[in-house]
Amino acid sequence: MLNDEQALNIVTTIIELAHSLKFQIVAEGIETLQQKDRLQELGCQIGQGYLFSKPLSFDNADKLIQTSKAEGILCP
Question: Among the four 40, 41, 62, 67, which has the fewest Cβ within 10 Å?
Answer without folding.
Answer: 41
